[in-house]
């Protein structure tokens, strides 16, 4: 892994198209800005892991038809 | 074609039309090696369907239509998600489904609105997309029990 030291306001370029800027650094927290083309997906890494473990939980769920027939979802305007 | 499934716990054989087979080029999070799935639909349970891995009968997701849960589910998808499903062409329809989790100890059902499953029926391509949209939660509770009377 490449390790670089950057100060707030300084940036790195990845492949000429992706710019990662250190906006602010405080003890225990770094604010980062990313400029990338729209086709590049940018996600918090822990979110990907979270969805993976949610999927693992989903396949262990076995919903008997009797459970499904007791579900009467009523759409709400807000999630 | 005949598909082996354990969607209700016991192994069964389900007849699925060829048009209901989908390729997930990237797999799904947590199951990166599962690329081929069958969408099992049931006319008695139109709100629900099942995404059955063709690699393993025990890998099956219960899906729900998001319109059953929220009146306006309009997540913004990024270009990469749409391109990987070959959805940039006009007039190609995409079906959106959400994965259901049953928390047996709490007798609670939740649906993952944060990472919907997109299905391009024309090209038979699928992808689970993780939204950067913060409006939609990973665990949207689904009401259990007879809150609505049955005619």
Written description of the protein model:
The complex is a heterodimer of chains A (79) and B (151). Chain A has 79 residues and is α+β, with helices and mostly antiparallel strands. In chain A, 27% of the residues lie in helices and 25% in strands. Chain A has two helices and three strands, in the order βββαα. Chain A has helices at residues 45-60, 65-69; strands at 11-14, 18-26, 29-35. In chain A, strand 1 and strand 2 form a beta hairpin. The mean pLDDT of chain A is 88. Chain B is mainly beta. Chain B is 4% helix and 35% strand. Chain B contains one helix and eleven strands. In chain B, strands 3, 4, 5, 6, 7, 8, 9, 10 and 11 form a nine-stranded antiparallel β-sheet that branches. A two-stranded antiparallel ribbon of chain B has the order 1-2. The longest helix of chain B is centred in the middle third of the chain and has 6 residues, at 79-84. Chain B starts with a strand and ends in a 9-residue tail after the last strand. The model of chain B is unreliable at 146-151 (pLDDT under 50).
What brief labels describe this structure?
heterodimer, A: 79 residues, alpha+beta, three-stranded antiparallel sheet, 2 helices, 3 strands, 25% strand, elongated, B: 151 residues, mainly beta, nine-stranded antiparallel sheet, two-stranded antiparallel sheet, 1 helix, 4% helix, globular, disordered C terminus
What are the SSEs and their pairings?
The complex is a heterodimer of chains A (79) and B (151).
Chain A: E1 11-14, E2 18-26, E3 29-35, H1 45-60, H2 65-69
Antiparallel strand pairs in A: 1-2, 2-3
Chain B: E1 2-5, E2 12-15, E3 21-23, E4 36-41, E5 48-53, E6 60-64, H1 79-84, E7 94-103, E8 108-111, E9 117-120, E10 125-128, E11 140-142
Antiparallel strand pairs in B: 1-2, 3-4, 4-5, 5-6, 6-7, 7-8, 7-9, 8-11, 9-10
């Amino acid at each position: 892994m490449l390790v670089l030291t950057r100060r707030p306001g300084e940036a790195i370029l990845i492949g000429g198209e992706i710019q990662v800027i250190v906006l602010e650094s405080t003890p225990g927290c770094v604010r980062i800005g990313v400029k990338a083309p729209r086709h590049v997906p940018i996600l918090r890494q822990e979110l990907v892991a979270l969805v993976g473990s949610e999927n693992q939980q989903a396949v262990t769920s076995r919903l008997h038809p009797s459970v499904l027939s007791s579900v009467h979802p009523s759409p709400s305007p807000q999630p | 074609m005949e598909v082996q499934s354990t969607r209700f716990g016991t192994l069964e054989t389900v007849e699925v039309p060829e048009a209901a087979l989908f390729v997930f080029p990237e797999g799904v999070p947590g199951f990166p090696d599962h690329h081929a799935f069958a969408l099992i639909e049931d006319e008695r349970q139109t709100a629900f369907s099942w995404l059955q891995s063709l690699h393993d009968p025990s890998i099956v997701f219960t899906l729900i239509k998001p319109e059953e849960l929220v009146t306006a589910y309009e997540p913004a998808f990024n270009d990469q998600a749409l391109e990987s499903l070959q959805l940039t062409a006009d007039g190609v329809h995409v079906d959106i489904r959400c994965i259901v989790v049953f928390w047996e100890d709490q007798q609670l059902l939740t649906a993952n609105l944060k990472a919907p499953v997109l299905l391009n029926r024309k090209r038979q391509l699928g992808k689970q997309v993780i939204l950067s949209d913060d409006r939609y939660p990973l665990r949207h509770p689904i009401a259990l029990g007879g809150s609505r009377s049955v005619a």
